[in-house]
Structures are given as C-alpha cells and as structure tokens.
Amino acid sequence: MPIAVLMMACADLVFAAMPSKNPFVIKLVPPELATWPRMKATDFGCMLEKRFGIRDQRYGCAADFDRMDWGDACLGATTNYNVGPELPLSVSKSLPSPISAVDLEWEHGELQYLSVKFDRKVSQREIEAMFGLRIDGQKPENLMSADLQDCALGKSCLMLQGFEHMGAADLECGT
Questions:
Q1: The model's pTM
Q2: In the Cβ-directed half-sphere of 125, how many Cα atoms lie within 13 Å?
Q3: What's the gap between Cα 138 and its chain centre?
Q4: Three-class secondary structure of residue 3 per DSSP
Q5: 67, HSE (Cβ side, Cα atoms, 13 Å)
Q6: Which one, 63, 98, 125, 164, has least CB within 10 Å?
C-alpha cells in the first residue's frame, strides 16, 4: 500500500474519533460585544449554545422568537418585557483584561444596551483600539451610541446602546 494512501486512512481514523467535550477554550473578543445591541434574545441564546455549549431552555436555538410572550411595556417589570438571557460568568471571564464584567439589559426580546465594566480607568483611545469602534465617530447600524463613563472610583464603564428605552410613559399607557 502506498504511503500516501496509508496516511490518508490514518487521518480518517484520527478525525473520525469522537471529539473531547472541551477540545479547546473558546473566548469572546471585545469587538464581538459591539455586535450584540438590538440582537434578539433567541439569537443571543442560540449563539451561547453553538459557541459555548451553554443551552438555555427558554432562549436556545430551538426557541421561536415570534411565538414568545415578550410582555407589555405598560405593565413593565410585571411582565416579560425586560427579560432575556444573561451572559454566563464562564463566558464573560473569557474576555481579556481590563474587562471585568458585562451586564445586559433586554427590552421586548431585544438587547437594548450592554454595559462593559473595566477593572481600572480606561481611555477613549484604549476603547477604540480594543473594540474597533470610534466613540465619537460613525457607528455600526446596530449601535445608537457608545459612551465611556466613570462608573466607580478609578474604574470605567462602556455603554453600548442599541435603542432608546420604551416604557409606559413613551407609549401613553392608560390613555
């Protein structure tokens, strides 16, 4: 048997083997976070399932966004209006330093904004290099605004907003 045929047969056996549960560590990179605002909760849940193997019963790949009850803005927190998946700690911890946490805020099944917390004060220049977006410049279509703020003594937060909050006052509820 020629050596090339033997090598291909061996390669087929190697690649046909069952993969290990975690063959390598999958990490998030900061520019990905800027793509999340306005994302549907079910798309976010499916991303967590496909990329990280974290299956959410309510928001996973099998969920149908259009058939879910997303609540009523007039009733606010008493309904599903502000619900959505959370970013698991195991996934947020895969982000590089100086990022220390990521908080998500959902509204009517879509990510209204996310807050990226840093373990130190960061500059606008660092944010632009880390996330690949300009704070004062043109934004991707899904981003309404990107604001760098002081959120604690010696620490910064980056707010990535997809759309304005729509609550009871905006919708003239009860009139």
A1: 0.78
A2: 0
A3: 21
A4: helix
A5: 5
A6: 125
- Distance in angstroms (rounded) separating the CA atoms of residues 106 and 83: 6
pLDDT digits (tens, 9 = 90+) for 61-120: 999 999 998 888 777 666 788 899 999 998 998 999 999 999 999 998 999 999 999 999
Q: Give the ranges where 17-160 is alpha helix by DSSP (H).
A: 30-33, 41-52, 89-92, 124-131
Reading the block at residue 60, the tokens are 């996973």
Side chain identity, residue 11: A
Cα torsion at 112, 118, 121, 123 (round to 10°)? -60
- As a whole number of angstroms, the distance between CA 139 and CA 15 comes to 42
- What tens digit of pLDDT does each residue of 9-49 get? 333 333 333 333 544 457 889 999 999 999 999 999 999 99
Count CB atoms within 10 A of the CB of residue 25: 6
User: Could you tell me if residue 108 is left (phi over 0), alpha (psi between -120 and 50 degrees) or otherwise beta?
Assistant: left
Query: Helix (H, G, I), strand (E, B), or coil: what is residue 78?
Result: helix
